[in-house]
Amino acid sequence: MSATRRHIVWLNGAFGAGKTTAARILAAEIPGAVIVDPEEIGTLLRPVLQPVAPVRDFQEWPAWRQIVAATLNAVLRELAEGGPSLVIVPQTVIVEEYWSEIISDLDPSVRLTPVALHIDSDEHRRRATDDTEEPGALRWRLGRFASFREAEWIRREFIGIDVSTLSRDATVAAIRASAYLSAADRRSSTPPMI
Q: Are 90 and 22 in contact (CB under 8 A)?
């Protein structure tokens, strides 16, 4: 099965599990693929809402959840003008109610593939510590790891991939397989999946 006309692949996982890296590689391989990072919506809202409605995590704002869904719907409408489209969303969601709210606001005609990247604690610590892109996020990533692991609903709602021993390429291949993205969906410059 190849990608449908409008498709969202949502990558959930512990902070530092490799969602953003996998999203970048996948977007580079799939024609028509783009990344929508909900963190950027949180960054936009923080100076507006934090002074008047302070929260520890921007996901607590209903506005963030509503804007994420509206943004995904709007981006997919724009992309649909040019043919098949894939939106990849690398975003950790730990609270089930937040996830339910976001997906209930998505256009029901859009195909949604929720994938969770699971990682063991030793490998998570190693990756988070070795990260050079966001070294300041180490404390946050380590502090929120247990919360992700304890969120049992994720195992019900998401396709799980254990990435503890997987390379970046193997992780992307597993996501592609989980989302039914075939070799025909890949850019012609990329060698076929093995």
A: yes
pLDDT of residue 2: 42
Contact at 8 Å (CB) between 72 and 111?
Answer: no
Question: What CATH code is carried by the domain that includes residue 19?
Answer: 3.40.50.300
User: Any idea what DSSP says for residue 136?
Assistant: G
Q: Tell me, what amino acid is at 63?
A: A
Confidence at residue 192, expressed as pLDDT on a 0 to 100 scale: 30
In a domain, 71, yes or no: yes
For residues 113 and 26, the answer to whether their CB atoms sit within 8 Å is: no
How confident is the model at residue 83, as a pLDDT?
67
Q: Which residues of the chain have pLDDT under 50?
A: 1-4, 183-194
Residue 102, in any domain of the structure: yes
Q: Which amino acid would we find at residue 16?
A: G
In a domain, 47, yes or no: yes
**Ramachandran bin of 55, using left for φ above 0, alpha for ψ from -120 to 50, beta for the remaining angles:** beta
How many domains is the chain built from? 1
Which residue from 24, 6, 181, 177 is spatially nearest to 106, judged by alpha carbons? 6
Domain of 130, in residue numbers: 6-185
For the chain, give the number of residues: 194
Residue 12 phi, psi (nearest 5):
-100, 165
DSSP single-letter state for residue 191: P
What's the pLDDT score for residue 188? 34
Residue 190, in any domain of the structure:
no
pLDDT the model gives residue 184: 42
